[in-house]
Design brief:
The structure holds 2 protein chains of 2 kinds.
Chain A lengths: L1 H5 L11 H23 L3 H9 L4 H32 L10 H35 L8 H19 L1 H4 L24 H29 L12 H32 L13 H34 L7 H14 L15 H29 L8 H23 L2 H7 L3 H31 L5 H27 L16 H30 L1 H4 L37 H8 L9 E4 L4 H18 L2 H19 L5 E4 L1 H20 L11 H18 L6
Antiparallel strand pairs in A: 1-2
Helix pairs in contact in A: 4-5, 4-6, 4-17, 5-6, 5-8, 5-10, 5-15, 6-8, 6-20, 8-9, 8-20, 9-10, 9-11, 10-11, 10-12, 10-15, 11-12, 12-13, 13-15, 13-16, 15-16, 16-17, 20-21
Chain B lengths: L1 H42 L9 H4 L2 H27 L2 H31 L8 H34 L3 H33 L1
The chains are: A mainly alpha, B mainly alpha.
């Protein structure tokens, strides 16, 4: 009976060591505090109507950013734990983490950073910016978009679920290589958590990617031919095409692993004719292109930023497009370089080694294109440009070490060493993460109508770059000295400890950088009158269509769909003078909660799959089917705003923005620094205590 | 009148986008099947001492299944012609026949599975049977979803009549059905004919 009701759930699996219990308490407390605040301020309904059920890609984009930001802190905390352990655990000292716990942390770190931080921000950016850049009012299927987002949230829930329901997370490394991930070697539920968090967020990604392909290919403004699309949209298109190509492979592979574990099949087992090596192939056929899914939109961001801040068009638009297409095409034929040591033979290794070196060519085309764009440009060194330059330097190191690793004989020496870890962090942090930071500092005025604080922003950038060098240059060195990855303890005679301590210090410096970024956003909102963007939505003198809208854009993006005749569509509009709009009827999708319901059922089903509670599986699958059918046969999912209403909304917006502009403080007020911010916060808190203002809440 | 034109133009564009998106979805599904086919190709000789496909499969049964599914694709095509002409009764009749043929296919497939399992050849037996059951099971699951989809759409057509949005749903359904037919032809060729070659 108990087995029927709760499956394998067990009291004894609940978290009982202190580090993990801290996580549990943090999660539950945050949730309760958020709920209480929302109820006390009567915001619950507003949150549900305006945000959670919204199908507006701009709001969904912001929700992606927030969840990605929270997960960045969560994954970053994992890093500090790991590096502190490595700095301490030498010789007789065993540090403060058990080997098992250490393994769970690096597994979770990898999964969270790739799936729930990088993917979150990339999808958020594509959601927000792509419709604006192509002159569209919404996405091809707004429903698929909210469904994709909520499945992604389901993935976040699954990856953190062990904090609440117990068991452990997978201790297998982020790709759970077979046969280690089989029942025989990983008997707990950790790998199942891993499978299902990736499964539902992966399905969400596939749906989202299909949607963006439809949107970009079918909904561009009249006159915007493929070769007139902004480069960020090109990067997103390439990335999404790759995503629909490889994410189905991930879904299928995950199902096979799950069947191996629960149904007792023999796909990747060591017995019964299974083939563990096939798993390595399948997972990397998805896993390698996945990093290009992440980097291509970032390449798009850099292309936009470098051209805007050099105040000239990109040096060669067509070669940039060719570079992106080249990267995505080659990216599908390099996966075997992750396991040259598997023994596929010299010919196979040579082929994949050469392909890996070839992929450096389109990438270099892009990098040289950006550098050529800066040549003779009037460069402005605002924070987005700083992130771009930091990217060029760090990504170049990552690229060069990548070409080194692509040579099979060298790879045999460096395989699984810290050198490899340093290499892919150079590309992923230098490329993807800096790209995201660059994008956020570039488009923040579009999101909010406020510029970001430059003083703290520049500080954050330098902390990040210096912290990065402090931690990853020692890591390269350690790799050459023979330190392998995923090491929780090493012998004192190796002499590695000083370098590990240096890495930990670098980690702390990066943590200060992250704190600065949060401070930057906070300070910008505090001084929002000073930093208000009074240019009507075009603070950087931009070139592409997103700057033609107000900041933040109206929910229908464009009052009039623009006519496009060149790559820098908005630049051309500005040259020719912007015409007075003629209003027309606008069709917009209605908000819907169906995405949330399906995701709740999906998450419940995943939870039940992990703990093998069959009745919940059956109920939630029926729930998904019924909800889906009802949605499919709902006919009125749209509404119309008449031209007169549009005119009224526009006039209201213009009036409000003129009024807001009057509040703009004059330029004599200084931008806040960190010290002023701290003073401000202390005063703020003191005021609350003095006036006892909590009574009013 | 003009108003109506604008709305229907808007609707036509939306239909066009949805159809395109559905094609992209079908390609992702195809990629999922491609993984299962690749896995079958790698593992089909790994019987770990068990019986091979040649000993286990019955070619006449597989041929019957193939013919059932091919015929159902044909009737599905006729139903779509009727749908484009707006002939509700013919749509119901021909999709009804398609549904029954699909059901018969599913029945035969389940019978084949149960025979195998009763003889002790389950998906736990060896890698060959694991990949066989999962490949065919995934196809069978798709057929089941297709049947469910067909049944609900037909019920809604009876209730609401055959309007343009129903025709669009039927077009997507027929694409899905033909797609499953193509996947089955590959299964028939690679799994069954391959075992006897």
């Amino acid at each position: 009976m108990k087995e029927f009701l709760v499956g394998k759930l067990n009291w004894s699996d609940l978290p009982h060591d202190w580090v993990m219990f801290g996580g549990t308490a943090t999660f539950i407390l945050t949730f309760i505090v958020a709920l209480v605040v929302l109820i006390r301020t009567n915001k619950l309904k507003w949150l549900w109507n305006e945000w959670l059920t919204s199908v507006d890609p701009k709001k969904i984009g912001i929700m992606y950013f927030i969840s990605g930001g929270v997960m960045l802190l969560r994954g970053g905390l994992d890093v500090l734990l790991m590096w502190a352990q490595q700095a301490l655990s030498s010789g007789d000292s065993r540090g403060f983490l058990t080997a098992e716990h250490y393994q769970e942390i690096f597994t979770a770190h990898g999964n969270i950073m790739v799936f729930f931080v990088a993917m979150a921000f990339i999808f958020g950016l594509i959601n927000y910016i792509v419709p604006l850049q192509i002159g569209a009012r919404d996405l091809a299927s707004p429903f698929l978009n909210t469904l994709g987002f909520w499945l992604f949230i389901g993935g976040i829930v699954m990856v953190n679920m062990f904090f609440v329901f117990g068991g452990h997370y997978a201790a297998t490394g982020w790709l759970a290589v077979a046969p280690l991930s089989g029942k025989e070697f990983s008997p707990g539920v950790g790998v199942d958590y891993w499978i299902w968090s990736l499964m539902i967020s992966g399905i969400g990604t596939t749906l989202g990617a299909i949607n963006f392909i439809m949107t970009i290919l079918k909904m561009r403004a009249p006159g915007m031919k493929l070769l007139k699309m902004p480069l960020f949209t090109w990067g997103s298109l390439c990335s999404m095409i790759m995503a629909v190509t490889v994410f189905p492979l991930l879904t299928a592979t995950l199902f096979l692993v799950y069947f191996d574990r629960v149904l007792g099949t023999h796909f990747f087992t060591t017995l019964g004719g299974g083939d563990p090596m096939m798993y390595t192939n399948l997972i990397w056929m998805w896993g390698h292109p996945e990093v290009y899914v992440l980097i291509l939109p970032a390449f798009g961001v850099f292309s936009e930023v470098v051209s805007t801040f050099s105040r000239k068009p990109i040096a060669s638009y067509k070669s940039a497009v060719a570079g992106m297409i080249g990267v995505s095409a080659f990216a599908l034929s390099v996966w075997l370089h992750h396991f040259f040591t598997m023994g596929a033979g010299a010919d196979v290794n040579a082929f994949f080694g050469i392909m890996t070196m070839v992929i450096a060519i389109p990438t270099s085309v892009l990098v040289f294109n950006w550098i050529a764009t800066m040549y003779k440009g009037k460069i402005k060194f605002d924070t987005p440009m700083l992130w771009f330059m930091g990217f060029v330097a760090i990504f170049a190191i990552g690229g060069i070490t990548g070409v080194m690793l692509a040579i099979p004989p060298i790879d045999f020496q460096l395989h699984n060493s810290l050198f490899l870890v340093a290499h892919f962090h150079s590309t992923v942090i230098g490329g993807v993460l800096f790209g995201i930071f660059c994008a956020i500092s570039y488009w923040f005025p579009k999101f909010t109508g406020i510029r970001l604080n430059e003083r703290i922003g520049k500080l954050a950038f330098w902390f990040w770059v210096i912290g990065f060098c402090l931690s990853f240059i020692p890591m390269y060195v350690l790799g050459f000295m023979g330190a392998s990855r995923r090491l929780d303890h090493y012998d004192a005679s190796t002499g590695w400890q000083p370098l590990f301590i240096l890495m930990f210090i670098g980690g702390l410096v990066i943590a200060i950088g992250v704190a600065m970024q949060l401070a930057q956003i906070l300070a910008s909102f505090i001084q929002k009158n000073k930093l208000r963007d009074v240019t009507g939505g075009d603070p950087w003198n931009g070139r592409t269509l997103e700057w033609a809208t107000s900041s933040p854009p109206q929910f229908y993006n464009f009052t009039v769909i623009p006519q496009v005749s060149s790559v820098d569509a908005y630049w051309e509009m500005k040259q020719q003078g912007i015409q007075k709009p003629v209003y027309e009827d606008i069709h917009m999708p209605k908000n819907t909660a169906v995405g949330i319901y399906i995701s709740i059922y999906g998450t419940l089903a995943s939870f039940a799959f992990v703990w093998e509670i069959n009745w919940i599986i059956v109920v939630s699958i029926i729930g998904i089917i019924v909800t889906f059918i009802r949605r499919a046969f709902t006919e009125d999912s749209e509404y119309t705003i008449t031209a007169a209403e549009v005119q009224k909304l526009e006039e209201k917006r213009i009036k409000k923005s003129l009024e807001d502009d009057k509040h703009k403080a004059d330029d004599s007020e200084e931008e806040m620094g960190v010290i002023e911010l701290v003073k401000f916060i202390i005063n703020f808190v003191l005021n609350i205590i003095k006036n006892k203002s909590w009574r009013k809440w | 009148m003009v108003e109506h034109d604008v709305v229907s133009h808007h609707q036509a564009e939306a239909n066009d986008r949805v159809m395109f998106g559905f094609w992209v979805y079908l390609m992702t599904d195809l990629l999922m099947f491609s993984v299962l086919f690749a896995v079958y190709a790698v593992l089909h000789q790994n019987t770990a001492g068990g019986e091979t496909g040649r000993q286990l499969f019955s070619l006449p049964l597989a041929l019957t299944e193939t013919l059932l599914l091919l015929t159902s694709s044909f009737t599905c095509g006729i139903a779509m012609i009727a749908a484009r002409r707006g002939n509700k009764n013919q749509v119901l009749i021909w999709f009804g026949i398609t549904f029954l043929l699909g059901l018969a296919f599913l029945g035969l497939e389940l019978k084949e599975f149960s025979t195998l399992i009763n003889e002790g050849n389950t998906l736990k037996s060896n890698a060959f049977l694991s990949s066989f059951f999962v490949l065919l099971g995934t196809h069978g699951l798709h057929i089941t979803i297709g049947l469910l989809w067909m049944a609900t759409t037909l019920i809604y057509i009876i209730k609401r009549g055959l309007n343009s949005s129903m025709v669009r749903k039927l077009t997507m359904l027929s694409l899905f059905w033909h797609f499953l037919d193509i996947v089955w032809i590959f299964i028939f060729t690679i799994v069954y004919l391959g075992a006897f070659s």
